[in-house]
Amino acid sequence: MTASPRHSPAGVGPIPAAPPPARHSPAPRRARMAATAGLSLVAAAALLAGCSSASEMSCGDFLAKSSNDQKSTTRDLLKEGGNDNPSAMLLAAAQGSLSGYCTVEGDDATLADAMSVFTDTLDSIGATTGTAQQDSATPAPQAPGAPARPPN
């Protein structure tokens, strides 16, 4: 006696075979995800290894960072310039200046160049990055037409 193929109840044709049960466990997927994450960290470290300081970073690398990472890099640049504790306003101004400079100058420009332009601009308007303490014997410059300050 030979087995005949199963037919649908209407007699139209054979019943398709059920798909085989899934044999995949979540463990290999987790292992692949962990390996991918590890490789990503190694790749990021390799990219950053070429930069011994934030000022050596290219504008392209800076612009590719998230806003928080750009802020951290800006803080590092200000620290390299001698400002260990920049105000929030200075940090925001420097980050905006770096971003603007890099957008205009292109990916190959360096953050050292961008920071130099930023500090030159601050110097030209009489502002400071807060790196040098002002001599208390030397009065701060006054805006033209401002009322005279009384002596201490």
Fold and architecture overview:
With 152 residues, the protein is mainly α. The protein has 5 helices and no strands. The protein has helices spanning 26-49, 59-64, 67-80, 88-105, 111-124. Helix 3 packs across helix 4 (88-105) and helix 4 (88-105) packs across helix 5 (111-124). The longest helix is centred in the first third of the chain and has 24 residues, at 26-49. Mean pLDDT is 74; it is low at 41-50 and 133-137.
Described by the principal axes of the CA atoms, the overall outline is rod-shaped
The biggest beta sheet reads: none
Termini gap: 117 Å
Q: What's the tally of helices?
A: 5
- Order of SSEs, N→C? HHHHH
Q: Give the helix level as a range of percent.
A: 40-55%
Catalogue the unreliable spans.
Answer: 41-50, 133-137
Number of strands: 0
Name the beta content range.
Answer: under 5%
If you compute it from the alpha carbons, what radius of gyration comes out, rounded to the nearest whole angstrom?
A: 32 Å
Mean of the pLDDT scores?
A: 74
- Judged by helices, strands and strand pairing, the structural class is mainly alpha
